[in-house]
Amino acid sequence: MLFCLPNSRGGKDPLSSPGGPGSRRNNYNLEGISVKMFLRGRPITMYIPSGIRSLEELPSGPPPETLSLDWVYGYRGRDSRSNLFVLRSGEVVYFIACVVVLYRPGGGPGGPGGGGQRHYRGHTDCVRCLAVHPDGVRVASGQTAGVDKDGKPLQPVVHVWDSETLLKLQEIGLGAFERGVGALAFSVVDQGAFLCVVDDSNEHMLSVWDCGRGTKLAEIKSTNDSVLAVGFSPRDSSCIVTSGKSHVHFWNWSGAAGVPGNGTLTRKQGVFGKYKKPKFIPCFVFLPDGDILTGDSEGNILTWGRSLSDSKTPGRGGAKETYGIVAQAHAHEGSIFALCLRRDGTVLSGGGRDRRLVQWGPGLVALQEAEIPEHFGAVRAIAERLGSELLVGTTKNALLRGDLAQGFSPVIQGHTDELWGLCTHPFQNRFLTCGHDRQLCLWDGEGHALAWSIDLKETGLCADFHPSGAVVAVGLNTGRWLVLDTETREIVSDVTDGNEQLSVVRYSPDGLHLAIGSHDNMIYIYSVSSDGAKSSRFGRCVGHSSFITHLDWSKDGNFIMSNSGDYEILYWNVGEGCKLLRNRYESRDREWATYTCVLGFHVYGVWPDGSDGTDINSLCRSHNERVVAVADDFCKVHLFQYPCARAKAPSLVYGGHGSHVTSVRFTHDDSHLISLGGKDASIFQWRVLGAGGSGPAPATPSRTPSLSPASSLDV
């Protein structure tokens, strides 16, 4: 499960003493020529460059540059359902991490992607489910429960918002739900006046709410088994259906008049009778004649209708009328994950194991079908757009566009597991990502599309482009590192250094050397040919007492600065045989080609008070050396001025990720910043605005670290 923590940190004044060994304080001492910072009681000394006469002359405020969310890569299809809908505007709405994406596809049916995105960013933790109002404009989105920085639980909630303005209209159920919101549905027959919510508590509480007032009208414990879907009958708001593990429940709500607290919910169990009870019923759909179709884990589509109870299979509470199966059709091999009623009255079903998309006519007669390519995964959700065009969400976090006759092509793609590796192209708006799903992906930042991907067979943790852009080095979790040709995607070099995971790979600015930082405490240095295709061992940097976390080359390509897991800052003379520079004071004026080390004089102000040394995962200075972007462990991206060498420096803070942010990198021209969510598997592309950016800064940018804009209107 993904947890998202709030950004605000307890403010503490710096002290002159380091505190005890278990202290989580950051403390700073100014000793004339150096600044001393303490992490977990360990002193970290950083020497002040000779050109700085006083720390007071350094920048003290947040940067003039700001970030605006430009594009979100990915879709949460791996572990969520009922998460893909089409709005009245024609936009497709879905979610990933804490962001609800409103996507307008470009090109023709089945053609290339493109289009534009808008984003609803009002949620503070991962979005788990969606429902669209009958007016096609209002949207309800439910989020999971998170924890704050002290480990205290935060409450899940439902937002009802306007998809045209991206303004929140109502906040429903704050304090009423446990763990998270698992399923949502608007009523239909009464213009969407009511919202049904199922939470993720042990009892899976079922509640009905007045959408306009935000008041609870009824509530009941539904079942201890997982509930996967909920819906109002389109003909009668007093009828609610839920389905999930081994059950279909038909609920009668007596409070459809909308009087708070006076309504009651009573349940009738769906009777399977002579039919085998499936393990799961993930989806259902209402037919125009009042019958209900369910899709189950046995691959069957069952037609449910009202019938008198049999004495051998009495309904709950002794009811005389029950819901039973009146027809069955074996539709798929393996589970059915999605059902969709089309405008023409036919029904679409999406299969898991067989990846088939089948159109069914009256009497469940198969009319047409298509198969989703294996590398996209199984069908997770289906939405109908104009004409015969369909949008299909898959379990490998892709959105496909097309129709049953012409087939489908991807318009949105993403990773499926935790992300760590990120690098940007030296002269194109492209970037490369890798992670625990073993996929290495090259992304086109201008076209917002996947250029190519390959299977690494192992977990990729770090990557870097050669300055020529012709090859890219990728570090794996086994000590192996690969060099791939970016055009042919062929592996031109395959080397292993030790048997520990690699945390950083970095080419020197002239491209003649490659540094490999390992968890075996070593930095391996290789000489590289001019085209980057060939390499030979040059030496090793030996001296760190813990695993390597970050490193940077000097602008002249002769020196390396490195950080380690025990908060060391060491300097190395590569030209003189990878020699450790004992006198770190002599490196105070050295200029660095990149700045990704999280510890150093120029960036020590990014560390928050109370940090335990692991709160910052990644850091990147812009190429114009004006700002520093920081990825923290609390789902936030920060923007600081550079140099950031004043304790407790203010920053602009941006939310949206639903997990620890693992990496940030600026594109070659500083027009965009790329950030990676860890376990949420999301990739955010931020536009840099303001001084040195690609557009004017907002008139009144937020300067408060704990606040971030609720929505992004960029298209």
TrEMBL record:
EML-like second beta-propeller domain ranges (all copies): 419-688
Subcellular localization: Cytoplasm, Cytoskeleton, Spindle; Midbody
Example of a GO biological process term: cell division
SMART domains xrefs: WD40
Keywords, alphabetical: Cell cycle, Cell division, Coiled coil, Cytoplasm, Cytoskeleton, Microtubule, Mitosis, Repeat, WD repeat
Keyword Metal-binding: no
Entry-linked SUPFAM superfamilies: WD40 repeat-like
Cross-referenced InterPro entries: Beta-prop_EML-like_2nd, Beta-prop_EML_1st, HELP, WD40/YVTN_repeat-like_dom_sf, WD40_repeat_dom_sf, WD40_rpt, WD_repeat_EMAP
Annotated spans, Disordered: 1-26, 695-715
Keyword Cell cycle applies: yes
Residue spans of the WD repeats: 412-444, 541-574, 654-688
Molecular function, one GO term: microtubule binding
Family: Belongs to the WD repeat EMAP family.
Function, as annotated: Regulates mitotic spindle assembly, microtubule (MT)-kinetochore attachment and chromosome separation via recruitment of HAUS augmin-like complex and TUBG1 to the existing MTs and promoting MT-based MT nucleation. Required for proper alignnment of chromosomes during metaphase.
UniProt-listed PANTHER family: ECHINODERM MICROTUBULE-ASSOCIATED PROTEIN-LIKE 3 (PTHR13720:SF15), WD-40 REPEAT PROTEIN (PTHR13720)
Protein name per its UniProtKB record: Echinoderm microtubule-associated protein-like 3
High-level lineage: Eukaryota, Metazoa, Chordata, Craniata, Vertebrata
